[in-house]
Amino acid sequence: MTQLTIRNIDDATRLKLRTRAAAKGRSLEAELRDIITRAAAEGLPSKHVGRSVRQRFEHVGGVELDIPPRSKARDVPNFK
C-alpha cells in the first residue's frame, strides 16, 4: 500500500476531521482513508452529461416545455 503525506492542513480543519472521526468511533487516519476512498470511487464526470443530469434530478419529476416551431432561416447577406 502507498503512504501519503498531506502538509499545511490548518488546525481548525484537523480538529473538525478528528471530531468527525471520533463521532464515528474511529481514528483520524481511518476517517481520512474512508474519505479518500469514497472520493476516488466517485470517479470522473460521466461522458453522458444529459444522462447524468437526468439521474441527478429525476426525483424532482419531469417538466414539459413548449418548444416553439422553427422559423425559416434568414437569407445570406449580399456584401457586394
Report on the architecture of this protein.
Helices cover 46% and strands 0% of the residues. It has 80 residues and is mainly alpha-helical. Helix 1 packs across helix 2. The longest helix has 15 residues, at 28-42. The termini are far apart. 0% of the residues are buried. The mean pLDDT is 88.
Distance between the first and last residues' Cα:
72 Å
**Structural class determined from secondary elements:** mainly alpha
SS field, number of helical segments: 3
- Estimate the helix proportion, in percent: 40-55%
Shape: elongated
Approximately what portion of the residues adopt beta-strand conformation?
Answer: under 5%
Mean pLDDT: 88
Largest sheet: none
Number of strands: 0
Order of helices and strands: HHH
Computed over alpha carbons, the radius of gyration is 25 Å
Return residue spans where pLDDT drops below 50 for at least 5 consecutive residues. Answer: none
How would you concisely characterize the structure shown here?
The protein has helices spanning 11-23, 28-42, 49-57.
Produce the secondary structure layout.
Elements: H1 11-23, H2 28-42, H3 49-57
Helix pairs in contact: 1-2
Salient structural properties:
80 residues; mainly alpha; 0% strand
